[in-house]
Amino acid sequence: MNIVIDHLLIKYKADQKWTRKVIEQLSEEDLVWSPTPECNSIANLIAHISGAVRYWFDAAYFGAPLNEYMNIEFDRGLQMTKEQAMEISKKSYDSIVGVLEMMKANPERLLEQPYLDYPSFDSAALNNRSTVLEMLLHQFRHLPSHTGQIIYIAKMRKGNLIWD
Question: 0.70 cut: is pTM over it?
Answer without folding.
Answer: yes
